[in-house]
Write a structure and sequence with these properties.
The protein is mainly α. The protein has two domains: 77 residues, no CATH class; 34 residues, no CATH class. It is built from six helices and two strands; from the N terminus they run ααααααββ. It has a two-stranded antiparallel ribbon with strand order 1-2. The radius of gyration is 31 Å and the shape is elongated. The N and C termini lie far apart (81 Å).
Length: 147
């Protein structure tokens, strides 16, 4: 069974048959509670964390706030991204801000220079051990001329 994007995002509906008005009344959230949930979602808090902080079951929380929290998390990430861009592009921004921005968004990387040759110290050690000398960048031994 192929699942659509909406079916993966939206929580599953309860399949219990509707009854007469028996049971617990539907949960109603105040505007203050909604603002608190929005602030936590902007700060990238997970659904389980927000539900626990609000004293609500996770499934109930997701039924009421799943899409709202996804939108607020995206808004929070965008705010941080804009702040980082302003820091990197302003004259007051540090060099570190600019380097970080370039690596994240402009595919810039640090230059990696690796030298796999034999070091001078290793060459001297080899010379003492067997009378041959290794030179950095040269893979073949050179006969020691000083002996």
């Amino acid at each position: 069974m192929e699942r659509t994007l909406e079916s993966r995002i939206m929580p599953r509906k309860r399949t219990t048959p509707k009854r007469d008005k028996a049971g617990r009344p539907p949960r109603v959230f105040t505007e203050t509670q909604k603002r608190k949930i929005d602030r936590m979602a902007l700060a990238q808090a997970r659904d389980t964390t927000i539900a626990l902080a609000m004293g609500v079951d996770v499934h109930t929380f997701k039924e009421h706030f799943l899409l709202r929290c996804q939108e607020k998390r995206a808004e929070g990430k965008l705010r941080v991204l804009n702040a980082q861009f302003r820091a990197a592009s302003s004259s007051k921004g540090s060099t570190v801000d600019r380097i970080w921005w370039g690596k994240q968004h402009l595919e810039q990387t640090d230059k990696q220079q690796l030298d796999h040759g034999v070091t001078d110290a290793m060459g001297e050690l080899m010379k003492e051990l067997d009378g041959t000398a290794f030179r950095p960048g040269n893979s073949k031994p050179v006969e020691d001329q000083s002996a």
